């Protein structure tokens, strides 16, 4: 049997056994993530809704709306920079500065073809970023943001881009 199928069958068997044995299952809100089909807990549902709201706020170019979802001690790692993590901005004011740079560099930036998923307090958004730089160069790049949440706020946003050559 294929290794991945063996792992799945084993996990399914353990879950079935635990349910049959009367083990408590984690509470579920019953909401289903439309991108993955996964049943989400209340925390995951809230974090998923936050990702949807952030995408809408980014596409509206509403920096105040975006920043209302970030914690005071948040951090932002941009995909470009002199370090392996790109350029890091720390604290809400720093994050605002880093995100403002995105709108300044590409005034018509748009995040399309978005997909989101969450697992507990972690989330991922995939997207196709399109726009035109101030110099007139067209931009089209696939990327993703890895998020960490605490208390309904973003505490970490780490952005990744495919390199177009």
Brief descriptors of the model:
alpha+beta; six-stranded mixed β-sheet; two-stranded antiparallel sheet; 165 residues; 4 helices; disordered N terminus
Write the SSE topology:
Elements (H helix, E strand, L loop, with lengths): L2 H18 L10 E2 L6 E2 L1 H18 L3 H5 L2 E14 L2 E5 H15 L4 E10 L2 E11 L5 E13 L2 E9 L4
Task: Kindly describe this structure.
The protein is of the alpha+beta class and 165 residues long. It is built from four helices and eight strands. It has helices at residues 3-20, 42-59, 63-67, 91-105, and strands at 31-32, 39-40, 70-83, 86-90, 110-119, 122-132, 138-150, 153-161. The strands form two sheets. It has a six-stranded mixed β-sheet. It is globular. Residues 1-29 have low confidence and may be disordered.
Percent in helix: 25-40%
Q: Which shape, going by the Cα principal axes? A: globular
Q: Low-confidence parts, pLDDT < 50 over ≥5 residues?
A: 1-29
Distance from N terminus to C terminus (CA atoms, Å) equals 41 Å
The biggest beta sheet is recorded as: 6 strands, mixed
What pattern of helices and strands is seen along the backbone?
Answer: HEEHHEEHEEEE
Structural class: alpha+beta
Q: Tell me the number of helical segments per DSSP (H or I, 4 or more residues long).
A: 4
Beta-sheet strand percentage? 35-45%
The pLDDT mean sits at 85
Number of strands: 8
Question: Reading side by side through the largest sheet, how are the strands ordered?
Answer: 4-3-8-7-6-5
Using only C-alpha atoms, the radius of gyration works out to: 19 Å
